[in-house]
């Protein structure tokens, strides 16, 4: 494109110069011509640049329109209010699930989460752990079986109220291009202006130290989409996402790989305080770090969409099944590490 412009300009120049020499064009005419040529060049350049920008904007608009056109996959018809405090026992009863148009991912999954209990869910990549979280948050409904909460089908409950009673840290948590305060505040918008509360949540999730180092602390714009924004490392973003969940004083806490990006010290600190952080709450913890899973009241082992083992760490180690095998493999791998919880029993 640029080369073409140079060649074109050179040809036009040569032609006018020849005509000037031949006396057909005056010196004033030549000056006028040069100015017109430069102006044309500049305008054509701008047109090309603006077209590229317009194209980019149209692509973005298409995404926006798709988003605005999106219809929820689930029926939001439940009216049952969610009881304040603990909504009672959560039961998966013979739950099977296939993503729309896909193969079955979960097969006849049955388990319970009792109020105040910490239950860990472990299993290999693709076993269906995150899918269970998506069903619990009602992004999808089971294709067979049911999820019961306090004895009633989850579909009967008011959807917005149900989601309010859950605090979920997803494996692919969101990074909002907003201030640090609002990044935590979106966890519970009614508290977004309560800086004391936001600070407390940040301390719990480990984001306070990260935010203290930012140029405008809690008012620093995070992310690189807007000018002046400060980007964070993967682990720093994860601390923000954890703090977001702690801001919401929810009865049920679901953590899907909440510390996968954290350094060993940060992870150790979070799990040291874990019992205190989730006191009185019903917790579903998903983690590949089996040392963190040990302290759960109960561990569920998911293998290719089926619950294959269930019990405490000691029970599962004694049973010598899939969990014991995974645990031994990890213990061996981390045997040299100085963190005491990482050692084999
Ligand atoms: N949105 C989706 N549409 C179709 N299939 C999906 C979708 N999300 C996940 N799957 C499929 O469902 C299966 C289970 O995925 P899931 O994310 O629940 O696994 P996971 O146990 O959380 O794995 P990991 O340990 O890697 O996080 C995978 O085979 C995956 O390909
Ligand atoms: Mg997952």
Description of the structure:
With 345 residues, the protein is α/β, with parallel strands linked by helices. It has two domains: 68 residues; 213 residues, 3-Layer(aba) Sandwich (Rossmann fold). Helices cover 43% and strands 17% of the residues. It has 13 helices and ten strands. A hairpin with a 5-residue loop joins strand 1 and strand 2. It is elongated, with a radius of gyration of 29 Å. 28% of the residues are buried. The protein binds adenosine-5'-triphosphate and magnesium ion.
List the helices and strands and how they pair.
Elements lengths: L1 H20 L5 H43 L20 E9 L5 E10 L4 E5 L6 H8 L7 E6 L2 E2 L5 H6 L1 E4 L10 H6 L9 H11 L2 H5 L21 H14 L4 E5 L7 H9 L1 H4 L4 E5 L3 H4 L4 E6 L2 E6 L1 H7 L2 H12 L12
Parallel strand pairs: 3-8, 3-9, 6-7, 7-8
Antiparallel strand pairs: 1-2, 1-4, 4-5, 9-10
This protein binds adenosine-5'-triphosphate and magnesium ion.
The site of adenosine-5'-triphosphate has 12 residues, from helix 3.
Discrete helix count:
13
Shape: elongated
CATH architecture of the largest domain: 3-Layer(aba) Sandwich
Report helical residue fraction. Answer: 40-55%
> How would you name the oligomeric state of the polypeptide chains in this document?
single chain
Q: How many structurally independent domains?
A: 2
- The radius of gyration is 29 Å
CATH topology assignment of the largest domain: Rossmann fold
What kind of sheet is the major sheet?
6 strands, mixed
- Major β-sheet strand ordering: 6-7-8-3-9-10
CATH superfamily of the largest domain: P-loop containing nucleotide triphosphate hydrolases
What is the H-and-E element order?
HHEEEHEEHEHHHHEHHEHEEHH
Instruction: List unreliable stretches of 5+ residues.
Output: 338-345
What hetero molecules are bound to the protein chains?
A: adenosine-5'-triphosphate, magnesium ion
What is the CATH class of the largest domain?
Answer: Alpha Beta
Q: How many runs of DSSP E, i.e. beta strands? A: 10
Report how far apart the termini are: 68 Å
